[in-house]
Amino acid sequence: MDRLMQDEAVRKMTERYGYDPVLDAVRQALDKIRKKLGEIQSEEEAERELDHLPDQIEDILKEWSRYDLRRVINGTGIILHTGLGRAPLGEKAAAHASQIASGYSNLEYDLESGKRGDRSAHFEKVICRITGFEAAMAVNNNAAAVFLTLAALAGGGEVIVSRGELVEIGGKFRVPEMMEVSRARLKEVGTTNRTHLSDYENAVGTDTKAFLKVHTSNYRIVGFTSAVSLEELCGLREKYGVPVIEDLGSGVFVDLKEYGLQYEPTVQEAAEGGADVVTFSGDKLLGGPQAGIIAGKKEYIDRIRRHPLARVLRIDKFTAAALESVLSAYLDPDTAVAEIPVLHMLTCPLRYVRQDAETLAGMIRAVLREEKRTAENHLTDGGEAEEKGCETLVCISTGECRAAAGGGAMPGAEVQSYAVYFEPVQITAAELDRRMRNLEIPVIGRIQEGKYFLDMRSVDEQDIPYIAENFRGGSILKKG
Ligand SMILES: *Cc1c(COP(=O)(O)O)cnc(C)c1O
Fold first, then answer.
1. What's the mean pLDDT when you consider all of the chain?
2. Which atom of ligand 1 is nearest to the CA of 146?
3. For the purposes of burial, counting CB atoms within 10 Å of the CB of 263, is it exposed (0-12), middle (13-18) or buried (19 or more)?
4. Domain residues of the chain, as ranges?
5. Most buried among 264, 375, 414, 480, using CB within 10 Å?
6. What is the pLDDT of residues 448-464, one digit of tens each?
7. Pocket probe mutation, ligand 1, options 148, 169, 175, 283, max atoms within 8 Å of Cβ
């Protein structure tokens, strides 16, 4: 051990990683090699193992110093992939968040008066301008927004909800359970497929504190159906003085139909329809940071703000900064579609996605072909096979596939997309998938009918050369 610590290469490592971590790594490497030496027969082999020791020490140190939470490349075509962190932030929003994170800010400080301010003030006006609501605030996520709104406006009372809207969103958000923990009593009305205005009206009692509408974000009820519109429900509000709350799920500010996508109700429509309070996610179709936005009439938002849970569920300064930046992009819908990655990826014309697929396939073929010139063994013999990209290691092709919004948004709406397909020759598609996941910047793809593929709609164009480089030498495709 002492000898190793004196080794030139190892001494250099102590400068980079610190003395104690290197000592630990040396210990671990020695333990490993002791076990191995027991099995080794020849002296030459033992020598070779010992020669590799400094490299092994460095590998251990590298692994220890690597962050566990890392950037990955999303080749799944699921744009709002909850496992992969949902909405990626655009450059502007990320830069604003980073600047606010690394210094002091006027997070809760009113520069005008020099007094204590409100952290929602930085984006409240923008939300009101875009949506037409009077007041707005944000909390940790939309689950928190629903929870807080129910607790503040209906805690201890009854909330009337249609049976067709008792939704469960992935990751343990269930309307009935949310209701229970908020201390609001759920009063279900109507049936799964049909609920009428009279069902709501007959259920109103002295304990009724709110009507709740929930956007069926991740499923559709089709066939013989009937639901009560927000406008109709607002008629009852006038009669009984009970507020109408709408959980919109994905907050959408632009009419996605205009960009060739499936219709999603917008926040503006909810405001026009007369909703008293709406809640929606910051990191679904809005394309911002994880947050739950609560917007509505001032009297209700003030009550929600004053509830003790508002302090429990508040957002941090990075989120406030990112939200401010993303929301301000929406003052012009075309700017929003260009700057916000989620909208950009969803609306990108198929021909560009196809171009990206062909660029990636071309680059991979090129790096594999380069190898052929040196090693003469990676490609089948020229001609047609080479045109199709069939190598002895892999058959690469491009073709159409279906991307999706994901994140429980736009159910059933698939977006035409283009992918690069890989059929490895020496290894299985599952093995290629595993190797791609274990790259320095992990690449997450999909497998279908024995083929591994990368849906290019969710891949940033700038990552294409990196993905291709990993095929240099072809070892990612070789057996063993
Ligand atoms: C996604 C969703 C939620 C939960 O939002 P999070 O931001 O994930 O907490 C709540 N309600 C509806 C209708 C949703 O679609």
1. 91
2. 10
3. exposed
4. 2-65, 73-81+346-477, 91-339
5. 264
6. 999 999 999 999 999 99
7. 169
Tell how strand 394-406 and strand 78-80 pair up: parallel
214 CB within 6 A, ligand 1: yes
Kindly give the distance from the C-alpha atom of residue 176 to the centroid of ligand 1, in angstroms, as a whole number: 14
Write out the two tokens for 80: 């709002």
184-205 pLDDT per residue, tens? 999 999 998 899 999 999 999 9
CA distances, 178 to each of 169, 203, 436 (Å): 11, 20, 39
Of all protein residues, the one whose alpha carbon is nearest to atom 1 of ligand 1 is 249
The alpha carbon of 143 and the centre of ligand 1 are apart by a number of angstroms equal to 6
Q: Is the CB of 217 under 6 A from ligand 1?
A: yes
CATH class of 91-339: alpha beta
H-type helices in 66-101, by residue range? 91-101
What is the CATH number that goes with domain 73-81+346-477? 3.90.1150.180
In the structure encoding, which two tokens stand for residue 207, read together? 């304990």
CA angle 17, 20, 21 (to 5 degrees): 50
Is residue 86 within 6 Å of ligand 1 at its C-beta? no
Phi, psi dihedrals of residue 420, rounded to the nearest 5°? -105, 125
Confidence of residue 173 (pLDDT cuts 50, 70, 90): confident
